[in-house]
Amino acid sequence: xxxxxxxxxxxxxxxxxxxxxxxxxxxxxxxxxxxxxxxxxxxxxxxxxxxxxxxxxxxxxxxxxxxxxxxxxxxxxxxxxxxxxxxxxxxxxxxxxxxxxxxxxxxxxxxxxxxxxxxxxxxxxxxxxxxxxxxxxxxxxxxxxxxxxxxxxxxxxxxxxxxxxxxxxxxxxxxx
Length: 176
Known about the structure:
Elements: H1 16-24, E1 32-35, H2 58-79, E2 89-94, H3 98-101, H4 110-130, E3 137-142
Parallel strand pairs: 1-2, 2-3
Helix pairs in contact: 1-2, 2-4
């Protein structure tokens, strides 16, 4: 399929050279680029989302910022200029759900939320920057579908009710 890379196309999310190399292998301007990479926590690698101020760790914050906003931003840096100028195309990133960044009165999850807020701001910046050279391109942050998967179990004590996992009002960030 022209312009198709597919999942896991042989690049490192934080390796700018491998991203640039992967993008140059795309044979035609893609109509859709979807970045779904992200991290909340990885206990086996001692990466935690920072539930409270007391549980903030520099290594966890560094990794969250490397994966959540920096990786997609590096992909955007190389992919956005390759999108078609004369027709509609979409560059979309999976961001945080409404319950994660915008409507959570309990606070916490500092590393995760701050890194996803940075990703949202990158989307706004890229949208503004793409207006002139690629006026038909849409740059958007999409909220994931709400769920209560197994990877959230270590943190379920924070949510006494299932309300943490109810669908939030849909929120996308796009500035056309």
